[in-house]
Structures are given as C-alpha cells and as structure tokens.
Write a structure and sequence with these properties.
Layout (H helix, E strand, L loop, with lengths): L11 H7 L2 H12 L12 H20 L1 H5 L8 H26 L5 H9 L17 H21 L5 H29 L3 H20 L11 H6 L7 H19 L9 E3 L4 E3 L5 H11 L3 H14 L1 H19 L1
Helix pairs in contact: 3-5, 5-8, 7-8, 7-9, 7-11
The chain binds benzoyl coenzyme A.
Length: about 325
C-alpha cells in the first residue's frame, strides 16, 4: 500500500547477517514450528520493520476506509440502512485501533504512524481512492471490498506475530457481517426496479477490477512476498488469494443476476478454477503512487480530522495528568 519509511526493509539481509546467528536460528525455528512471536521476544530487525509496515498500513486502510462509506451516511435510503451502515463504519474505526495497538507493541508510536500517513511516507489500500457515486456502491463495497478483505485476513489470524494474529480474529468476525450487509443491499437492489438493478450492475462494473487489485501485485512482481512467506507473516500469496476471491465471487454474481465486467472470465475444468482477464497494473501502480481518483480528497479529510480532533487529545492528556497528580498526592 505504501512505501513507508517506518517499514523500510532495505538492507534487511545485511542487518540479519549482523545479528547473532544463534538468535536468528532460534527465531526461525520458532516460526517454522508455528509458534507465535510475542512483543518481548527477540526478533530480527527486518521482521519487526516488515510488521510495522504491514500492520500500520493495514490500520491506515481501515481508518481511511471509513471515508467512502461515511459519504452515504446522511443519504442512506432508510433508518435501518443508516443504522447498519453507521455500525459498520464504527467497526472499521475499531479495527484501526486494534491494529495501531498491535503495531505499537513493536516500538513505534501512534503519532509516528499517523505522521507517516499524513506526510505521504505511508499510504493505504488503493481501493479507498475510488469515489462512492451511488447507494449501490455501499452494497458493492460490502460485498466485494469486505469480501476481498476477509479472504486476505482469515489467513492473517495465523500470522506469526501474536498481537497481529489475535487482532485479526475479531476483525474477521466483523468483516463477515460487513460482507453480508453489502450482499444484502445488492440482493435488494437486484430484486428492485430495472433502474435499481442497473445501479447495482454499474457499481459492480466500477468496483470489480479495483477489488482484484487489493490483493497486491502478481506474485512474480511482489518484492515483499518471499521473505514474508518465510517468516509466516503472509500465509498465502497475493495471486492465490485473488484466485480464491474470484472463485467464490463469480457464483455470487450469478445469483444476483449480475455480470462481472470481464469477457475472459470462464470456468477452467482442468485447473478447477475460473480463468480471468488481465488486470491493469499500470492503474494499480498509479493509485499506489497517490494518483487515485480521490486520493487528494481522502488525505485532506484525514488531516483535517486529525487537526480538528487535537482538542480531544489535549483534553484526554490533561485528564490523565490530573488523575496521576491526584493519585500521587
Ligand atoms: N494498495 O510486495 P507486495 C479493509 C504495495 S482494509 C496499496 O506484494 P506485501 C476495509 C505494498 O505495500 C484492507 N499498496 O507487498 C476497511 C508494497 O509497497 P511497500 C487492508 C499496495 O505487503 C474499511 C508494494 O505494493 N488490508 O478491508 O507483501 C472498509 C509491493 O507489494 C497494495 C490489509 O492491509 C494495495 N492494494 O503484500 C472496508 C491487509 N498491494 O509497502 C474494508 C494486510 C500492495 O513495500 N496487508 N501494495 O512500499 C497485506 O496482506 C499485504 O500488505 C498486501 C501486500 C497483500 C496488501
């Protein structure tokens, strides 16, 4: 999601070679035995940095991910839809908080992580740089974006770093509810008027390819994958998860009576999977570089929220200082 200074893994091999080989060997044996690594355990510096990079960008994605959906809170078509959407967006805030806490256990502060996001050193998932134009987009996000997120996050419940794995357990339960609420919106729209069904198809047309990009670059062009798989931070490759997502989602689209916008999508009996068309990787890298359709708007909203919330953080600090003074008096 981003080239983050916090998580730079450049020189990681050089760093490892300077580390005590006995410690490295013991660490690798624990990982290979599927033991969790905990915050106070010794770990290679490159492992720590990789985790800070991935967990902090994951946290930023959850928080920035609140914005496209927040856009529809005041225009939800009924009170029920509004209450459900509000609950979902609040869940995303919670996910961001668990993840920032997990990253903090690796010795990086919340302020450093937020600063990296706001100064463009750390970015967030490409998917949140696309606009939500109609109510059907809220259905498509739940169905496709949360669906893709679950596919990626279920294996992360077994990632090698304990605090990250445990955070993922609750996140996955909530994402599963999010996926269903999105699919239910799509079902309602597809069973509605022809105009409503057309809106659902239009949303699928716009969100399909960006959802496939969420899984990251193809395996043969994924610089972090080999090491992350060896350290069992990642359990499945980008392409494996993308394929699983396509295989599960195509029958769901059929059930809705919607057409996935890919003329090359077809069942391959020999492989036992769907084949699908070429992803526009130039678009993906442009969005990663911060050139997504609403990238500037997203970062402006985050910076303003941070600045406008300063008084809340100051008040919390003042309250804590008062409590501490009272306790020591
Ligand atoms: N967007 O070597 P690779 C949610 C970057 S929130 C932007 O394969 P890695 C939700 C990648 O960072 C879901 N950048 O990397 C919230 C790397 O650059 P750096 C968020 C991307 O880390 C609210 C470079 O490309 N989920 O679901 O091994 C409402 C090369 O890639 C993206 C997570 O964060 C992208 N899509 O694998 C609704 C899951 N893909 O950092 C829903 C946790 C790749 O070296 N993260 N890049 O400069 C992961 O599982 C992994 O980090 C990834 C990438 C699979 C995403």
């Amino acid at each position: 999601m981003y080239t983050t200074e916090l998580g730079k893994t450049d020189g990681s091999l050089a760093q490892i070679s300077q580390e005590d080989p006995a410690l490295v060997e013991a660490f690798e044996a624990r990982v290979a035995a599927d033991e969790f690594i905990e915050p106070k355990d010794w770990m290679p510096e490159a492992y720590r940095r990789t985790l800070v990079r991935q967990i902090s960008q994951h946290a930023h994605s959850e928080i920035v991910g609140m914005l496209p959906e927040g856009n529809w809170l005041t225009r939800a078509p009924s009170l029920r839809r509004k209450a459900v959407l509000l609950a979902k967006i609040q869940d995303e805030a919670g996910h961001g908080l668990y993840l920032y806490c997990a990253a903090e256990t690796l010795g990086v502060s919340r302020a450093e992580m937020i600063d990296a996001l706001h100064t463009g050193r750390a970015k967030y998932s490409t998917i949140f740089n696309y606009p939500t134009l109609t109510w059907a987009d809220i259905g498509a996000i739940g169905w496709l974006v949360d669906g893709a997120a679950i596919m990626n996050q279920v294996p992360l419940q077994r990632t090698s770093y304990g605090p990250y794995a445990r955070a993922m357990v609750r996140v996955c339960k909530e994402e599963s509810f999010h996926q269903r609420q999105g699919y239910e919106i799509m079902m309602a729209m597809c069973a509605g008027t022809p105009d409503q069904k057309a809106m659902a198809q239009d949303a699928l047309d716009r969100w399909w390819w960006p959802s496939l990009m969420m899984f990251g670059p193809p395996d043969d062009n994924s610089p972090n994958s080999a090491q992350s798989m060896r350290w069992r931070i990642k359990r499945d490759s980008n392409d494996e998860l993308r394929q699983k997502f396509v295989d599960i989602t195509k029958p769901q689209a059929d059930h809705l009576g919607l057409e996935i916008p890919d003329k090359d999508l077809k069942w391959n009996e020999a492989r036992g999977h769907y084949d699908f068309g070429a992803i526009d990787w130039e678009e993906f890298y442009a969005v990663v570089r911060g050139e997504g359709p609403v990238a500037k708007e997203r970062m402006k909203a985050r910076r303003e929220a941070w600045e406008q919330g300063a008084w809340v953080r100051d008040a919390a600090d003042a309250h804590e200082a008062k409590q501490r003074a009272r306790a020591s008096a």
